[in-house]
Specification:
Blueprint lengths: L24 E4 L17 H10 L1 E4 L5 H16 L9 E3 L6 E5 L1 H4 L1 H7 L2 H11 L3 E11 L7 E4 L1 H9 L6 E7 L10 E3 L6 E4 L8 H5 L10 H11 L2 E3 L6 E5 L4 E3 L8 E10 L38
Antiparallel strand pairs: 1-9, 2-11, 3-4, 4-5, 5-13, 6-12, 7-11, 7-13, 8-10, 8-12
């Protein structure tokens, strides 16, 4: 199967049409899930590789030391406290307040998080899962404060990246590094296991500048309730929880969401999207023009050279 994308601004043939005018449709995935054959040299175990291929996500613990996580937490707190210094397009606030909800282009806004994005413990796994060199399609820091943190509705990231960014195929993976303890109570990442093997072609055309609304509340590019009910009835729901330092890799087409956080305990994570260099975006498939650069890296897809060793605050 040819899963490469063109090295031009012209989109390849659309094998995942979405944002349909008449009805929502659910079809089968047309790409591999795991692009590498497992061997003893792989950065994850055979069981972990099988879990990712079957469920569409993988939770890994103990990758980073307590000191490394402490440095990342301190750096994230400084970024949020100095949110006024971040470029306006790189920050999103909570609906109805000025509290920072998201910091985009995290690797550009923090040397420490740029170092984390290139860490071999993340990059080597992404390269194995995708069977290719990788670059950052998107990076961000997410905050969900106690009491007021808002929910993220069910969606497939690939559906948005395909429709609005022009990502041709399902050859990307997200890595979420937890910077607070995530329990079942404070709005953790929820996933529908196995949903990555279906593609939900969503109903409704993409409005102009849809990203301006979807960053606050996503309403376009989300499956209908009946579809979510059917998929959840087939496979259930999983919550990806763990202490600070836990890393969650999840496949680009896995349906996921998170509840609002009304507990006193905040939730935050660093989030890196690794895309195969052969899969870089072309023209959007279901939008008039691409989303801005802070949401989708459209420059040269330079492979990340993995960095080994401890992470220190920079």
């Amino acid at each position: 199967m040819d899963v490469t994308s063109p090295n031009s601004a012209v989109a390849a043939a659309d094998v995942y049409p979405t944002r349909l005018a008449d009805e929502e449709r659910v079809g089968e995935r047309r790409d591999p899930v795991l692009y590498s054959a497992w061997s003893e040299d792989a950065p994850i175990s055979r069981d972990e590789a099988c879990h990712y291929e079957e469920k569409g996500y993988l939770v890994r613990n103990g990758l980073f030391s307590d000191d490394e996580i402490r440095s990342l937490i301190e750096t994230s707190a400084t970024l949020r406290a100095n949110g006024h210094e971040i470029r306006p397009e790189d920050r999103v606030t909570e609906p109805g307040s000025d509290a920072i909800r998201t910091v985009f282009r995290l690797d550009e806004n923090s040397e420490t998080f740029a170092r984390l994005a290139a860490d071999s413990r993340l990059v080597d796994t992404a390269k194995f899962l995708l069977g290719d060199d990788v670059y950052l399609h998107q990076s961000r820091l997410n905050y969900k404060p106690g009491f007021t943190g808002k929910e993220f509705y069910w969606h497939s990231d690939f559906e948005t990246w395909h429709a609005e960014d022009g990502m041709p195929r399902m050859r990307a993976v997200s890595a979420s590094i937890l910077l607070t303890d995530n329990s079942a109570l404070n709005g953790p990442l929820m996933l529908i296991p196995g949903s990555h093997r279906r593609f939900v072609a969503c109903l409704g055309e993409t409005p102009e500048a849809n990203h301006e609304r979807s960053l606050k509340k996503q309403e376009i590019g989300v499956p209908q309730s009946e579809t979510l009910e059917r998929l959840a009835a087939e496979a259930g729901l999983d919550a990806a929880t763990g202490p600070a330092g836990t890393v969650i890799f999840f496949e680009c087409n896995t349906l996921h969401a998170s509840n609002g956080n009304v507990t006193p305990f905040p939730r935050s994570n660093a989030f890196f999207v690794y895309n195969a260099v052969s899969n870089r975006p072309a023209a959007p498939y279901a939008a008039a023009k691409p989303r801005p650069a802070f949401l989708a890296n459209r420059g040269e897809a330079r492979p990340i050279a993995p960095i080994r060793g401890r992470i220190r605050a920079l």
